[in-house]
Amino acid sequence: MPLIGVELADLVRGAKQGDAMAMSRLLDALAPYVGRICGAIALDAGEDAAQETLLTVFRRLRSLRDPDALYGWVRTIAVREGLRAARAAASPVTTPDIPIAEPHADPALADDIRCVLERLSPEHRAILVLRDLHGIDEVTAAGLLGVARGTVKSRLHRARTLFRRKWAT
Q: Which of 49, 76, 109, 131 could bond to 38 as cystine, CB 3.0-4.6 Å?
């Protein structure tokens, strides 16, 4: 469950001041969130991308000005690391252990979705994960992916078309 409110602000503040326990609790709380994003985008390389994301959070937390922006800031890092790892892993992929859906979701459906996502490019996986799994709007997705809004719209259309086609086969 994501941290909210005062607890989040206290952990971020403590971690920024060098409190090792606060940093540990913060990273532990962020790990499942980061894992879902990186796992869905990078597939087999998702664990590596998640670790790189958490390392980046650890190293750069002092640059975060507003604790309320933590999840958006972490999501940006996770998407970039997930895409980087997916592009670097040019070999065929197999199903990773990181869930792409919430823990209470139907495991058979999650496996079916994962199988279809594995057959899409990293860019198409990323846009589907951001828009359809995490509900991120087009403007935010464009910023996270470093592309124009029109590119997000066309890539999303193409990704959904490919997903539907591959789902049916």
A: 49
Residues 76 and 94: their CA atoms lie apart, in Å, by 25
Q: Which residues contact 160 (CB under 8 A, 6 or more apart)?
A: 128, 132
Are the beta carbons of 120 and 128 closer than 8 angstroms?
yes
pLDDT tens-digit readout, 70-88: 999 999 999 999 998 988 8
pTM of the model: 0.68
- Tokens 């879902």 label which residue? 36
For 43-63, letters b (16+ CB in 10 Å) and e give bbbbbbbbbbbbebbeeebee
Q: Could you state, in order of their start, the residue ranges of all structural domains in the chain?
A: 5-168
Q: Which two tokens stand for residue 28?
A: 């532990």
Q: Is 57 within 8 Å of 77 (Cβ atoms)?
A: yes
Q: What's the rounded Cα separation, in Å, for the pair 68 and 160?
A: 32
